Amino acid sequence: MERSFTIPEIITEKNLPEITELFKDAIAEGETTKSPNVCIRYSTGDSQFYKAQLGEFFFYNGKMYVFDTKPQWAYLHEPDVVKAYFGKELKERGFAHKVAYCGIKTPFKDREGRAIFTGDICYIGKRLNWKDLSNFHVVTSNVYEGYGFAMDNCMLRLEDLHQAPRRVGTIFYKLSFDEMKDTWYACSDISNMYGTNPDINQHLMMGKMTPNFEQDDFVHFVLSSFGKTDWKYTFKRETSYPVFPRPTKRVAPDNIQSLKKNEIFVFGSNKQGHHAGGAARFAAERFGAEWGVGEGLTGQCYALPTMEGKDSFRQAVKTFFDFADQHPELKFLVTAVGCGIAGYTVEQVSVWFSRAIVSPNVYLPASFWKAIKDRHPHNYGL
User: Fold this and answer.
1) How do residues 283-300 score in pLDDT, each as one tens digit?
2) Cβ-contact 51, 235 below 8 angstroms
3) I need a surface site. Which of 76, 114, 137, 364 has the fewest CB within 10 A?
4) Between 44 and 47, whose confidence is greater?
5) Chain centroid offset of residue 352 CA
6) What is the pLDDT of residues 234-251, one digit of tens each?
7) pLDDT at 323
8) Region(s) of the chain under CATH 3.40.220.10
9) Cα angle for residues 119, 120, 125 (degrees, 5° grid)
10) Residue 235's pLDDT is what?
11) pLDDT score at 212
12) Is the pTM of this model over 0.70?
């Protein structure tokens, strides 16, 4: 069917959801070839960027979703969101899962001939100089002025540069699945109309380690100590994280019968703290897990709720890691949480436990480490 509206020449974070709304019917029917050539970058929670064309993604309640037919995304599929937005289930489109938005592809290329996306941190000097803070800027977009760098009272357009910029990172650190990062406002993280931002060194350092969902500034400083000196603009199989020390010695035993004084038994629970079966019952009988405590430290155990849905489970894992980081004197022995009565697979759960790579006091089951290695063998140096 012929459409009477015109797609804007410049794509921004503000008009991108509006464009997907206009092409809702084409997206529902999988007619990606009939959609405009709009490409976005996103992350699924690992250390990689992915790309999607208009027709493969949509927005609902301010959150971004991508369709994927690979079975590995079945457990993250949100059929209620699909039905609420499109009015039908769209089973033929595959699995719609929530992702983190990471920029819009521009028509321009960097100094190495690779496409520039909004949100990229670029250096516009002749030779890279990390002390020359005034020459680091964030690529953004404006419907009136195009793609470029927001300056004091104007836009330095990419098309007006005498030479292509050098990309040194992105602003997609401290990412969230529930909030779309606006590159226009993120420019103030690097520079603003009042001159150089006093925290620019910190933001540049964090910008090298992207995409990144870690919210704690301290963790980024720890990551930088591993010797990350340059950022790789990578998709799919290449990594943009530093290579970490091998964690092969941090394997939790399969059959834990006793604990040392500083060891904590981490088991899957429910919010009500009804430790009636499996590892939960064992934790209560052997290591003092208290009835009615569904999350957190209890006895010589840590209860990690797994029965309230994947979003709740994922948040509980983050809370656990935050707690472990705050208690370096303790050694956390993680059981195969979520892989019993909760019904998750090792491959699904291990995605959320990848943070154990940089948590030296967290010990995972061998099956979890294997799943992490199989998924990203050259990311983690396993």
Assistant:
1) 999 999 999 999 999 999
2) yes
3) 114
4) 44
5) 10
6) 444 333 333 334 555 789
7) 92
8) 251-375
9) 135
10) 45
11) 79
12) no
Distances (CA, A) of 38 to 57, 103, 185, 186: 11, 11, 22, 22
Q: What is the pLDDT of residue 226?
A: 60
More confident residue, 150 or 87: 87
Range 178-186 average pLDDT = 80
Place of tokens 């019952």: 281
Distance between CA atoms of 27 and 103, rounded to whole angstroms? 20
Buried b (16+ CB within 10 A) or exposed e, 273-307: bebeeebbebbbebbebeeebbbbebbbbbbbbbb
Answer yes or no: are the C-beta atoms of 289 and 302 closer than 8 Å.
no
Report yes or no: 259 and 287 within 8 Å, Cβ to Cβ. Answer: yes
- C-alpha atoms less than 13 angstroms from C-alpha of 320 in its C-beta half-sphere: 34
65 pLDDT more than 90:
yes
HEC letters along the chain: CCCCCCCCCCCCCCCHHHHHHHCHHHHHHCCHHHCCCCEEEEECCCCCEEEEECCCEEEECCEEEEEECCHHHHHHCCHHHHHHHHCCCCHHHCEEEEEEEEEEEEEEECCCCCEEECCEEEECCCCCCCCCHHHEEEEEEECCCEEEEECCCCEEEHHHCCCCCEEEEECCCCCCCCCCCCHHHHHHHCEECCEECCCHHHHHHHHHCCCCCCCCHHHHHHHHCCCCCCCCCCECCCCCCCCCCCCCCCEECCCCCCCCCCEEEEEEECCCCCCCCHHHHHHHHHHCCCCCCCCEEECCEEEEECCCCHHHHHHHHHHHHHHHHHCCCCEEEECCCCCCCCCCCHHHHHHHCHHHHHCCCEEEEHHHHHHHHHHCCCCCCC
Amino acid making up residue 67: F
Residue 95 has pLDDT above 60, yes or no: yes
